[in-house]
Write a structure and sequence with these properties.
Elements: H1 10-15, H2 17-26, H3 44-51, H4 57-69
Helix pairs in contact: 2-4
C-alpha cells in the first residue's frame, strides 16, 4: 500500500479492509474505538508519533512494514 510518505490519513487506512486489519492487529488500542470526524483526518505520521508513548519503536516499525505490504 502506498502510505504517501506517511501522510495517508487514518480514515483512508480504515476504509481499506487490509490496512484496517493491520492497524487493529498491531495497535489493539484502536480496535473497538469509534474513529470518526476529525480523528479520521489524522495522518499516519501523527498517529505514530502519538503511539510512541505507548508502543516500543520495534512495534511501530513492524506496523509500517505490515501496512506497506497490505
Amino acid at each position: 500500500m502506498d502510505l504517501k510518505d506517511d501522510k495517508i490519513t487514518v480514515g483512508e487506512l480504515l476504509d481499506d479492509p487490509r490496512s484496517r486489519a493491520v492497524l487493529y492487529r498491531k495497535i489493539p488500542m484502536l480496535a473497538g474505538r469509534q474513529l470518526t470526524g476529525a480523528s479520521r483526518t489524522v495522518t499516519l505520521e501523527q498517529l505514530l508519533s502519538f503511539t510512541e508513548a505507548f508502543l516500543p519503536k520495534w512495534r511501530i516499525v513492524e506496523v509500517l512494514e505490515a501496512l506497506r505490504r497490505a
